Amino acid sequence: MTTLDLITREDLEAFKKELFEKLEKLNINNESYKEKQWLRSSEVRKLLKISAGTLQNLRIKGVLKYEKLGGIFYYAHSDIEQLLGEIGRS
């Protein structure tokens, strides 16, 4: 025989409340957590709405500085913000 566990709406509400309390204690919603210091190529492409080829051209032309660790390109978040600022002014 198998037992059947039922989850009620009240159970879900209690779980939700407990989860949010734990997240607040961890400070997950803190802005400094959301803003990474270094971004990977995929994150930069999504942020700038560009293709992989365009990102490669920005690297080759020296428009965007990067660090390469173990075959993965990393970009400073501050450099991305600066580039966006320059694009906005032109």
UniProtKB/TrEMBL annotation:
Residues 9-36 form a coiled coil. The keyword 4Fe-4S does not apply. Pfam families: HTH_17. Keywords: Coiled coil. Residues 38-84 form the Helix-turn-helix domain. It comes from the Bacteria. PANTHER family: HELIX-TURN-HELIX DOMAIN-CONTAINING PROTEIN (PTHR34585:SF22), PTHR34585. This is Helix-turn-helix domain-containing protein. The lineage of its organism: Bacteria, Pseudomonadati, Bacteroidota, Sphingobacteriia, Sphingobacteriales.
